[in-house]
Design brief:
Elements: H1 3-16, H2 25-36, H3 41-54, H4 63-69, H5 79-90, H6 93-103, H7 106-112, H8 116-122, H9 126-152, H10 156-170, H11 183-188
Helix pairs in contact: 1-2, 1-3, 3-4, 5-9, 6-8, 7-9
Amino acid sequence: MTRDEVKEIIMIMTYTYSNYRPIDIKATVDIWASILAPYQFEGIKAALHAYILSDTKGFAPSPGQLIDQIPVKKFDMTELEAWGIVSKAISNSNYHAKEEFDKLPPVIQKTLGRCDVLKEWASMENDTVQSVIQSNFIRNYRTVLQREKDIGKLPVKLRELLEITGEKMSGRGIESNTNQIDCKKIDDEKF
């Protein structure tokens, strides 16, 4: 955000909240501009409008409260819908875990972590999979969704840095093949 855009945000807050009167408007704009610099003006403005519409206390927001209100990507899939997709993938994962894993939506792939999980679950008793494994998956799926929502609130450059770091840590961004699971080999093994 630019300084002028921050001025507009501060102006909206001063007109909306009669008790919001910064002592030093220039210093306030400077501080807010440095904090909100990585964010898009439209996102912060939409967050301010959302905050104003839901506010019942009558106090202007802090930068963190606005960042928390930034609209993020919604996930249309419920926990049970996600489990249904995983359950279907499990049924074909004795010999095709890699292919089934690759067909899953990215958020489910992140929840599972790796393709050999499908192979492991396919070899288990169905009652165990449909009770214990299902509840564990749903709990992990909730965690991944919350993390995705939290990451969605971060500035774009910081998100890109986290993605690059995550790839390097998982081995996808590293040239060597150390500690990587060969899912094709897992599919070919007969248990």
